[in-house]
């Protein structure tokens, strides 16, 4: 009996995390840092139309098997920037048409953190230069486009542990305002495994000033995921991974207050709430 339960749980988790069928969509949440699913009505082409939002290419998936299938053939799945204001009209362009959509406000909480390494709050000019270089490298990865027809849009959790900081928090480091929290933090012990939440390819790995040891995975059509503060990286660019494959280990490298995984999900070069992709 002792063996039975974990076995059943594992196989169920495997079925849930590998289920990839037409009709899978992330959870829609039309708020800053959320996702809009926009029907590209009127476009009947057999192949997916090219869609664009603020200069970045947007994921387009088949509406077949979704709640929209009687309404449209194609759906744009768009990441909404945290900085977007609800009064702004957001517009996707596709097939020569404009598709406007509106969003609601979301008030994210504030978080105050104390960082012992002062350079991680007020870096010197050389460190700022380093950070800018690293940021350009990361944005390059976030903008990567692989034309996979049906990218995996439901994820398994990449680490076991409580969520210690949600996405979107307004952040103050040593009382100074900084960029909002662009990922989800999962608290886990030093050396615990970090695993791929879905199939994909390793785009880049690096040791970054703020993010520490980092891996960025590509899942196709501008959907990428990033893993930070790792103590060890076990993959290299070009590696093809399946759900549950190990990326490396939990660590406390970069700007941290303790060991944890910072997990970011990016769509059309916009960091969105990873919760929206979780499959249970
Ligand atoms: Zn974080």
From TrEMBL:
Domain Peptidase family M23 N-terminal: 31-106
Any one GO MF annotation of this record: metalloendopeptidase activity
One Pfam family in the UniProt entry: Peptidase_M23_N
Cross-referenced CDD domains: M23_peptidase (cd12797)
Occurrences of domain M23ase beta-sheet core (ranges): 180-274
InterPro entries xref list: Cell_wall_metabolism_enzyme (IPR050570), Dup_hybrid_motif (IPR011055), M23ase_b-sheet_dom (IPR016047), Peptidase_M23_N (IPR040487)
Keywords: Signal
Range of residues in the leader sequence: 1-22
Protein name: Peptidoglycan DD-metalloendopeptidase family protein
Organism: Pontibacterium sinense
């Amino acid at each position: 009996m002792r063996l039975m339960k974990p076995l059943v749980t594992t196989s169920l988790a495997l079925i849930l995390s590998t289920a990839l069928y037409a009709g899978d969509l992330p959870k829609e949440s039309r708020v800053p840092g959320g996702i809009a699913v926009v029907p590209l009505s009127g476009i009947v082409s057999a192949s997916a139309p090219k869609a664009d939002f603020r200069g970045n290419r947007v994921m387009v998936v088949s509406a077949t098997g979704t709640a929209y299938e009687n309404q449209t053939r194609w759906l744009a799945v768009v990441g909404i920037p945290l900085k977007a204001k609800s009064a702004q009209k957001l517009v996707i362009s596709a097939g020569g048409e404009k598709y406007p959509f509106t969003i609601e406000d979301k008030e994210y909480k504030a978080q105050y953190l104390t960082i012992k390494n002062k350079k991680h709050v007020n870096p010197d000019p050389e460190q700022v230069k380093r950070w800018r270089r690293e940021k350009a490298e990361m944005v390059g990865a976030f903008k990567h486009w692989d034309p996979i027809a049906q990218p995996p849009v439901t994820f398994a959790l990449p680490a076991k542990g409580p969520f210690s900081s949600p996405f979107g928090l307004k952040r103050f480091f040593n009382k100074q305002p900084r960029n909002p929290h662009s990922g989800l933090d999962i608290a886990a012990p030093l050396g615990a495994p970090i695993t791929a939440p879905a199939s994909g390819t390793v785009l880049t790995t690096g040791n970054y000033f703020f993010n520490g040891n980092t891996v960025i995975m590509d899942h196709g059509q501008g959907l990428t995921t990033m893993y930070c503060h790792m103590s060890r990286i076990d993959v290299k660019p070009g590696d093809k991974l399946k759900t549950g494959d190990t990326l490396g280990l939990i660590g406390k490298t970069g700007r941290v207050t303790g060991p944890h995984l910072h997990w970011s999900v990016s769509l059309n070069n916009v960091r969105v709430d990873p919760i929206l992709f979780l499959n249970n």
